[in-house]
Write a structure and sequence with these properties.
It comes from Diaminobutyricimonas aerilata. This protein is mainly alpha-helical. It has helices spanning 4-29, 34-45, 50-63, 80-105, 116-127, 133-162, 166-196, 202-232, 237-264, 267-270, 276-280, 285-290, 296-305, 313-325, 328-347, 354-368; strands spanning 109-110, 113-114. The protein has a single domain, classed as Farnesyl Diphosphate Synthase. Helix content is 76%, strand content 1%. The two termini are 29 Å apart.
Length: 372
């Protein structure tokens, strides 16, 4: 049984192998396709592999769970190659989502590098080609994201083919389909809130922001990877319920931490400009909590500035100060702590392996105390 570090290494090696194989295929078609591999390598080289880790420990939690008949089961590692494929599939899916998300948010950077659409724009500009530089960048990045989506599905299928339990394989595919559907719709709900918030009743803004968190991030970042791994191990219904009861509140806490970093994070650590979520106009739980607590003048300023892509450093500082003084940051920190406690409580007495439960509890702290 590999630990987290070894699992991350296995996934990294598999991703490197996949991209090497795909590079050979693309080179046969045209040398002009090299950016698709180069940009993919950069995207997949970074990240913390949290989704892969949750998938792996979801699998471990079920396959090592004691039963009345066999209180100390001997874990069977034969499905590990299948799990590595599935973990790699999640990482490639995440890369695709980042590419598309950066287009929708008009982001300039991702993990300290230019976002994919900006990189395609640079190719166009440096080559002095005809037509719109911005249009070329968006189109190239859209196709890169679509290509990555296809590759993630191929990796998932490869993993499912290796699973010995065909019923488990079908259940795992169902979980992946659910995840893909929900995160896509969650993305739409996110852009809907950015565009339509002025037409919504004030009392609806917080629950609507919470709904975005659940479907755009919480399920996809934590709950779904856990459920995928658990399903691959042949989880019973109560075990799927247990990993969901842990994964959903932890996923909410994970995204709330991300929202704080999107406003207050250190660019040197996050790889994104300071206050990037403010320029993008993200209607997060943080903003929904801050607005009603602000004086009328400060609230009007927030509404005027939020979503302005030209915000300068001084304007960012003004908004950061207003949000802090509203008490919203402290409230979000309390909500994070509450959700972490709720997630950990769901592990107590859950029909899951004890070592995996301990590891999942440690992961809960890791993903919600991070600085990037």
């Amino acid at each position: 049984m590999p630990g987290s570090t070894r699992l991350v290494d296995l996934v990294h090696d598999r991703l490197d192998s996949v991209l090497t194989d795909r590079a050979a295929h693309l080179a046969q078609i045209s040398p002009d396709l090299e950016p698709f591999i180069g940009f993919s390598r950069d995207l997949l080289a970074g990240g913390k592999r949290f989704r892969a880790l949750f998938c792996y420990w979801g699998w471990e939690a079920v396959r090592t769970a004691p039963t009345p008949i066999d209180p100390l089961p001997e874990p069977d590692d034969r499905d590990l190659p299948a799990i590595v494929e599935m973990c790699a599939a999640l990482e490639v899916f995440h890369a695709a989502a980042l590419v598309h998300d950066d287009i929708m948010d008009n982001s300039d950077t991702r993990r300290g590098l230019p976002a994919a659409h900006r990189r395609f724009e640079s190719i166009h500009g440096e080559s002095r080609w005809a037509g719109s530089r911005e249009g070329y960048g968006r189109s190239g990045a859209l196709l890169l994201g679509d290509l990555l989506l296809g590759w993630s599905d191929e990796l998932l299928d490869a993993g499912l083919a290796l699973l010995a339990d065909r019923t488990a394989a079908r259940a795992t595919r169902d979980e992946f389909v659910r995840m893909r559907t929900e995160v896509t719709l969650g993305q739409y709900l996110d852009i809907l809130e950015e565009a339509s918030w002025r037409s919504r009743p004030e009392a609806d803004l917080l629950p609507r922001a919470h709904r975005v968190i659940v479907y755009k991030s919480a399920k996809y970042s934590v709950e779904a990877p856990l459920a995928l791994g658990a399903a691959a191990a042949g989880a019973a219904a109560e075990q799927i319920e247990a990993v969901r009861a842990f994964g959903l509140p932890l996923g909410v806490a994970y995204q709330l931490r991300d929202d704080l970093l999107g406003v207050f994070g250190d660019p040197e650590v996050t790889g994104k400009p300071a206050g990037d979520d403010l320029r993008e106009g993200k209607r997060t739980v943080l903003i929904a909590l801050a607005r009603p607590a602000l004086p009328a003048g400060a609230r009007q300023l927030l509404d005027e500035l939020l979503g302005d892509p030209e915000l300068d450093g001084r304007q960012i500082e003004v908004l950061q100060t207003a949000i802090r003084e509203s008490g919203a940051v402290d409230k979000v920190e309390r909500i994070i702590a509450h959700n972490v406690d709720k997630a950990k409580s769901a592990l107590m007495g859950a029909p899951l392996g004890p070592t995996a439960r301990a590891q999942l509890s440690r992961l809960a702290d890791t993903v919600t105390r991070r600085s990037s």
